[in-house]
Amino acid sequence: MSYSSELSMLVAIPVALLLLLGSGLSLAGALGLLSLGSFYERLHAPTIGTSCGMGFVLLASVIYFSTLQSRMVIHEVLIAVLVLLTTPVTLMLVGRAALHRDRLEGNPEVPPTARPTHADQSGSI
After folding, report:
1. Beta strands in 9-106 (DSSP E)
2. Which whole number is the average pLDDT over 45-53?
């Protein structure tokens, strides 16, 4: 298998733009992680930055390697699906674990658990 080292400008420019956009979004997520105050605020920025930034980098990779190999390269699609499925689930699990811990410790900044009202307990609405 031989790869040509020459890449046309019609492919190189979109690949470069997608890489810059993806890395910029990932950088924004990292800066959000550093600049936001509480743990719960810090969960959101890196998750969005990682998911969107990863999508653009993987799209650039698909275009680049599909052009070089003269066939469709879709390994990146599996990576994207797995990251897009696991990132929000991980965010939710980490956030709920932290919320549970903070409630057990009696942190006053965390809202208490929702308790059923009298109407909910009697079964009537």
Report:
1. none
2. 80
